[in-house]
Write a structure and sequence with these properties.
- The chain is α/β, with parallel strands linked by helices and 277 residues long.
- 35% of the residues lie in helices and 19% in strands.
- It has ten helices and 13 strands.
- A six-stranded mixed beta sheet has the order 2-1-3-12-4-13.
- Strand 7, helix 4 and strand 8 form a beta-alpha-beta unit.
- The longest helix is centred in the N-terminal third of the chain and has 18 residues.
- This is PhnD/SsuA/transferrin family substrate-binding protein.
Length: 277
Amino acid sequence: MIANARMYAVAAPVAQAWRALFAYVGERAGVAWTYVEHAAPAPVSALWARPDCGCVFMCGFPFVSAGSRHRLLAAPVPSLPRYGDRPEYFTEFIVRDDAAFATLELAFGGRLACMLPESNSGFNAPRHYLMAKAAAGAATLFRPTAAPTPTPRQVIDAVIGGDAEVGVVDSYVLDLLRMHVPELMAKVRSVAVTPASPIPPLVAAPQAGDAAVARVRAVLLGLHRDPACAGWLAQLRLARFACVAAQDYDVLARYASEADRARFALTGTLDARQPRP
């Protein structure tokens, strides 16, 4: 079996903390697994397709929209007060720190750096959010970037480098970067935040045995009471792990279906009357 935290291994100290924490979880649960990197540009969907996943982060949107049979283990609860001690997160709309945009609306018509359609925070949730801000019949509010930006770091780099006026990034990713790479995050600021969504869970492959899944879940749910884990949780800005159910993620499929019915695109060709930054 394998463990992996690619979705949230966003800086070297963070990756080290995840590796150590997952090794501890496997040892306590009596489950032998190997931590694998599966770093970009390898597609994260290929990781989720592996039959030997033992403890791997999976985006909630593909989990629910593809009818996934992955076994839910638990979901992280970020420690900052804005998460309300719940397994939730947001999408933040970021711009360069020196950008003239005081609000997201002032950037409408510009280029938006987003992730792949399989991403909730980097595509699905912001599309639904922008749909509610668009005028009736509008097909989109932003133009695409010249090159794709399939990872959060590529989104951030596109904004900093001037290839996009706005980027959409997972709030927990940004909070980890704010703690561990503050010099990078000083170059951007947030101009809007979506409503909360259920945060990506840790999952095991469908083939994982019931007994192993139960042991791993129990260890994850008890980590915040284990003094040995306090340092790792602090490095990861985590309060605890929480139980989640498959139906908790149904809202993500609703986001997509509502935007699909409205024929609203996250980026695309703008109406000629749409002002551009």
